[in-house]
Amino acid sequence: MSTVPGRFEQVYGEHVVGIYRFVYARVGNRPDAEDLTAQVFVRAVEQLDTTRERGQIAAWLYRVAQNAIADYWRAFYRLPVVGVDHVAPGWEPADDGVPRDTVPDERASVRVQTLLGGLPDRYRRVLELRFLQRLSVAETAQAMGISNGNAKVLQYRALRKAALIGDGADG
Amino acid sequence: MADDRDPGAERFERYLEALLAGGRPSPEDVASGDEAEMARLAAEIAGAVSREDTNPDPAFIEQLRLRMRAADAGLEAVQVPPPLRQRMPIPGRSRRWRLSRRQLLQGGIGAAAGLAAGLVGVSLAPRSSEQVPTLGGDADLVTGDGFWQEVTRLSDLPVGAAARFSTVAFEGFVVNDGGEVRALSSVCTHMGCTLQYRPEWQDLRCPCHEASFDFSGKLANGRRTWRENPYRGDARAYPIQLPDLVRPRVKVEDGVILVWTAQA
User: Fold this and answer.
1) In A, which residues are within 8 Å of B40 by CB distance?
2) Do B16 and A130 lie within an 8 Å CB cutoff?
3) What pLDDT sits at residue B226?
4) Is residue B30 within 8 Å of residue B39, measured between CB atoms?
């Protein structure tokens, strides 16, 4: 699709790390982040007009990434996957072309800290042990002096509670 | 709390285990919209905690860059034979093949890698040998000019074994599937990574995203087959369905395994 040789590779080099991080912050694991990143650029090499200005290119790439992420989660919600061509509602990029949370690292960790801070002590504790310290269920259970089964249930309820709070915070 | 166990917690834990181990979590472990919301939150928390995974793997970036470069290059000028299944010689021309962008993305890099691997330590079989029945393989995969290339001896390929080979056009494995010899591409049909033979599972495994192909060239740990027959090598299904591996023709002659390869 490029009209200038090497132009697409330049676009790739400028954006691939940003797109990966953007995706990673939303799927939380490397294999899926790599898959979705590849999906974005496979579509870009076929369809992106690389003669457009930088901001428009970034907007296009992040839009495709958002759609790919939306599709990824649709599978979890048991909703039909609609393909990266669609425009996901409510995911409009900001005026400068790049979504406001393109650099999610700080923003997301602040949001996560806020979420954890709003939870009852035991809920916060179980999530900190599992997610921040990456302890196993057994180690978490031991640290909290409860059974493995109870640790799983506690963690489940903590996430459910946090999901409810998150909903409220987002409006 | 022991008395009001949450039945969803046990299953949902499988999603979390995969996520926190840095693996690929499965939607199968998430039962409802509420749990999807929790899964999404868990992914966001996991993604916000600074770890090695937060930054992309340089090998991944480089591999994808090469794919993109090849896809973006002037494809009509590509003179590397594409994967055998997709090859269509242009009549009356020099040996050039036309490739669509998508075909190149799907397999071109592997073919190029096969070409680069070249002819090392192999001998060529006589060009016009009599017709010997082929074992396995897809007899009509490759037409046009080519020759039989020796890859290994049958005695070196016991039942359940696989051996790597390279030809000018192709890189693959010959496998002994319960006495039937077959040749399979070693290029994963997902992103073009090179498959590894795992003797303990008798499969060809992709190091990039853990797809496993059986000795017939089909995805062995895919979700579609998982319900009837969970794959013994993995705890959960590979999430995407992938096309079969390309299978060139193969035959055994005087105890020698030969693979049909196109002329470069």
Assistant:
1) 73, 76, 163
2) yes
3) 73
4) yes
Contact A38 B46 (CB under 8 A): no
Q: Does A33 touch chain B (CB under 8 A)?
A: yes
Q: Is residue B62 part of a domain?
A: yes
Is the same domain home to B234 and B200?
yes
Q: Does B135 map to a domain?
A: no
Q: Is A133 exposed, middle or buried (0-12, 13-18, 19+ CB in 10 A)?
A: exposed
Interface touch B38/A156, C-beta < 8 Å? yes
| Cα–Cα distance measured from residue A65 to residue A87, given in angstroms and rounded to the nearest whole number | 11
Structural domain harbouring A33: 1-102
Average pLDDT over residues B213-233: 81
Rounded distance between C-alpha atoms, residue A32 and residue B24, angstroms: 6
Record: contact B48-A12, CB cut-off 8 A:
no
The whole-angstrom separation of Cα B24 and Cα B19 is 6
If you average pLDDT over residues A140-164, what whole number do you get? 93
Of B40, B48, B191, the CB nearest to A108: B48
Domain co-membership, A19 together with A73: yes
Domain membership flag for residue B32: yes
Q: At what angle do helices A7-27 and A30-47 cross, to 10 degrees?
A: 150
Count the domains in chain A: 2
A72 shares a domain with A109: no
Q: How far is A96 from chain B (nearest CA, A)?
A: 24
Whether residue A25 lies within 8 A of chain B, CB to CB, comes out as yes
Q: Are residues B161 and B250 located together in one domain of the fold?
A: yes
Q: What percent of chain B is modeled with pLDDT above 70? A: 67
Per the CB < 8 Å rule, is A134 touching B105?
no
Confidence check on the interface: ipTM exceeds 0.85, yes or no = no
